[in-house]
Design brief:
By secondary structure, the chain is α/β, with parallel strands linked by helices. The chain has helices at about 10-15, 25-30, 40-45, 60-65, 85-100, 120-130, 155-170, 180-185, and strands at about 50-55, 70-75, 105, 110-115, 145-150, 210-215, 230, 235, 240. Helix 5 (about 85-100) runs antiparallel to helix 6.
């Protein structure tokens, strides 16, 4: 029988990652391959990305003794799914310049871009940051994008619930500054005590975690499909809890 008392290889990678940094900087500097190191493939998920490759071209490239055609998917953090017109235009422009040009809408009220080459990750993240968008914790074993009933301007209650979705998202963000250091060039903190994470520790969660808030009578976020499904309590047209 397997020894379930021992942490899995993924748990060991997370615990030894130095706050989700791993060797991502070294992986990005490696120009020999379009991929990143194996351990870093687990860590980059916490930064909102997945490494992928063009499956349709695997056989052809293998026959030519070429590396797989690697690229990355980047998923945005959009609590409640709200996106202002100017940000949509920016995403459209970024997608056209740095990815396949296709913007995919996910089932968790956010957007993702595919086909981003390793050399284009930093420029893409910096372009998102310039319009106050990020990809922190949109993948990986951590709290994911927080859902709420659509269109915050539908009523005062919808606006309040949307604000709570944003607050929950902010409260459950990882403490590490790794995303800012690796992708935006922020200086690493000399004293990492500020990064100690009382909620996640150094292994974060065993699996992804999903939260949604519904406003009766609608269940457009499907509360039962989430790890935590919250339902707004409304009395006399006021949000009570």
């Amino acid at each position: 029988m397997p020894d379930n008392s021992q942490p899995s290889s993924i748990e060991k990678i997370k615990a030894a990652s130095d706050g989700l940094r791993g060797t991502l900087k070294e992986s990005l500097r490696d120009e020999i391959t379009g991929a990143i190191r194996e351990d870093d493939q687990a860590l980059i998920k916490f930064h909102g990305m997945y490494q992928q490759d063009d499956r349709d071209r695997r056989e052809e490239r293998a026959a030519r003794k070429l590396d797989r055609l690697y690229s990355f998917m980047i998923r945005l953090r959009l609590p409640g799914g709200l996106l202002e017109p100017e940000k949509w235009i920016a995403i459209h422009d970024i997608a056209g310049e740095n990815s396949t040009g296709v913007i995919k809408i996910t089932s968790r009220q956010t957007l993702q871009l595919h086909g981003i080459l390793k050399s284009k990750i930093r420029p893409t993240i910096k372009a998102f940051n310039a319009v106050k968008l990020d990809s922190i914790a949109t993948c990986g074993d951590i709290n994911r994008n927080v859902l709420c009933s659509s269109h915050p301007k539908q009523s005062v209650i919808h606006e309040q619930v949307f604000a709570y979705a944003g607050k929950i998202s902010s409260l459950l963000m990882p403490k590490t500054r790794a995303w800012y250091e690796i992708w935006l060039g922020e200086q690493q903190l000399a004293d990492k005590k500020e990064e100690q994470d009382p909620l996640y520790g150094d292994r974060y969660l065993p699996r992804k975690f999903k939260i949604a808030i519904a406003i009766p009578p609608n269940n457009d976020v499907d509360v039962l499909a989430n790890d935590i499904g919250l339902i707004a309590i409304i009395e006399n047209n006021e949000l009570k809890g």
